[in-house]
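Researcher: Re-running this chain for the archive, since the previous output was lost when a drive failed. Same request as before.
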Amino acid sequence: METKAASYDVEARAVVINHLSVHDDAVGTEARRWASGARGEPETDQETLAKGDLTNFVTQALRLGSLAMTATGHAQDTFGLERLVREVGERTADSSTAAAELTARAAKDAAGNLFGEESEERRNVALSRKLLPRVLWYGK
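Model: Regenerated structure tokens:
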């Protein structure tokens, strides 16, 4: 069975690091502060640094990194939700505007009908009602 540098132990519910090398300047600089097992002044002695126990550093780094990743994930989820709400708001505003325009047009047409202002369709119907009897009368 292949040994991985880091894995998850299901029974212990823990991340297990067997052998992992991290080549990152920021990580190395911070690790120098943890050579004694607790965060302090950066260790300058290479031998002391090499013998130091960085378990607390790795634990804190993983914990803080995980919290940051979780917060970033929530921020992305929140951004997605905010975008969805914004888009729904825009669509609602567009729908409301269209509904208001249709309502205004219907009200105008209704008011026009009440006060004798006729639409072209209404004039055509009225004209056909006047002409139809005459056409029928001439057809006799």
